[in-house]
Amino acid sequence: MSSGDEILSVEGVARHFIPPVSVTDRLFGKKPVVNRAVDGVDLVLRKGETLGLVGESGCGKSTLARTIVGLYRPTAGTIRYEGAVLDGKRTRAQQRAIQMVFQDPYSSLNPRMTVGQMLSELLRFHKLVPRNRVDARNRELMHLVGLPESALGQRPRQFSGGQRQRVGIARALALEPTVLVADEPVSALDVSVQATIINLLAELKETLHLSVIFVSHNMAVVRQISERTAVMYRGRIVETGETGTLFDDPAHPYTRLLIGSVPRLAVAGGPARTAETTGDLGPVREEVARSAARDETQPCRFADRCPSVVAACAVEPPLLPDPRDPARRAACVHISQHTEGVIA
C-alpha cells in the first residue's frame, strides 16, 4: 500500500479519562485511577475501503471512533486526513469530511425538530447549497436513504428504529463527507432490520465513493461488509489484515477467541467442538506479572487470558508483520512462528 492510498491515518493516538478527585481523596493523597480507554493506536484507512473495527464491549472502539470524528480530543498521538494533521480546532471543511453514524439513532436526533428542520439547519450553517435549494437537497437526501419525502415533516418519535437510523445516515451524508464512521449502526435494531441498513451502507459507499470505518462487536457483520479488519483489545489494536485472511487464519490468540465465540450450527455427524485446553499456566502468568513489575514495562494485555502465554509476554510487542503475509500484523510474540491455524 502506498501512502497515496491513505485517506485517514491514526498514529499513536491515546484518549485517557481522569475522574474527578474528591476532597477526602485529596486529604489522604489518593491519586485517581486513569481510564486508558484508547492507549496508543495506529490505524490506516484507505480510499474507498470499508475498515472493520472489532472487539468486545469496553475495549475502546467507540472512544476511538469519537476521537477520530473530533468529539473527543486525543490525549496523545496524531490524526491525519489526506496528509493534513487534524488538531483540536478543525476547520469546517475538516469537520464535514469525517462524519459519524451513531449507535442509538433516537438519542442522536433532536426530538423537538422535524427531519426537515434538522437537515435544513445543517445545510444553511455550512452553506453547502444556496438557500433556494435547501428543500430540494432535503428531498434528495430522503431518496438517497430510502425514505419518502413526507418524512421531512415528521419528528424522530414517529419513526421505527430502522427509519430513525436512515435519518441519522441522511444527516451524516448532508455534509457530503468522504469518510463515514459507523459506530455500531445496527446493534440497537431488530435482526430483521439490520440487513437492510447494512445493505444501504454498502450501496451508499459505492454510490458516493465513501471510505468507511465500521465499528462493531458482531464478527459476522464485519466479515460481510469490510475489506480489512482491525481487532481491538483493551485500548490497543492487536491485529490487522485483510478480512478473509484474518477470519480464516487468525494470527493473534484474542482474534481466535473472538472468532471462536461466533455461534455456528452443528453439522450432523461432524466433529464436536471442544474447548481449547490451556494447561497449568498460572505460574507463567505470575512470572509475567513479576517481570513486568521489575522492569516497569507493560505486559501483554491479553496475557492473563492467553492459552499461549510465555515469559516473553512480559513486554507487550508492537504490531509485528506476519512473515507469510506482510500486509497482516499482530501484536504477539508468536507471530514469527505463525503457521496456518497454529499460533505457538
TrEMBL record:
<keyword id="KW-0067">ATP-binding</keyword>
<dbReference type="InterPro" id="IPR003593">
    <property type="entry name" value="AAA+_ATPase"/>
</dbReference>
<dbReference type="InterPro" id="IPR003439">
    <property type="entry name" value="ABC_transporter-like_ATP-bd"/>
</dbReference>
<keyword id="KW-0813">Transport</keyword>
<dbReference type="GO" id="GO:0005524">
    <property type="term" value="F:ATP binding"/>
</dbReference>
<dbReference type="InterPro" id="IPR027417">
    <property type="entry name" value="P-loop_NTPase"/>
</dbReference>
<comment type="similarity">
    <text>Belongs to the ABC transporter superfamily.</text>
</comment>
<keyword id="KW-0547">Nucleotide-binding</keyword>
<dbReference type="Pfam" id="PF00005">
    <property type="entry name" value="ABC_tran"/>
</dbReference>
<dbReference type="Pfam" id="PF08352">
    <property type="entry name" value="oligo_HPY"/>
</dbReference>
<protein>
    <submittedName>
        <fullName>ABC transporter ATP-binding protein</fullName>
    </submittedName>
</protein>
<dbReference type="InterPro" id="IPR017871">
    <property type="entry name" value="ABC_transporter-like_CS"/>
</dbReference>
<feature type="domain" description="ABC transporter">
    <location>
        <begin position="21"/>
        <end position="259"/>
    </location>
</feature>
<dbReference type="InterPro" id="IPR050319">
    <property type="entry name" value="ABC_transp_ATP-bind"/>
</dbReference>
<dbReference type="InterPro" id="IPR013563">
    <property type="entry name" value="Oligopep_ABC_C"/>
</dbReference>
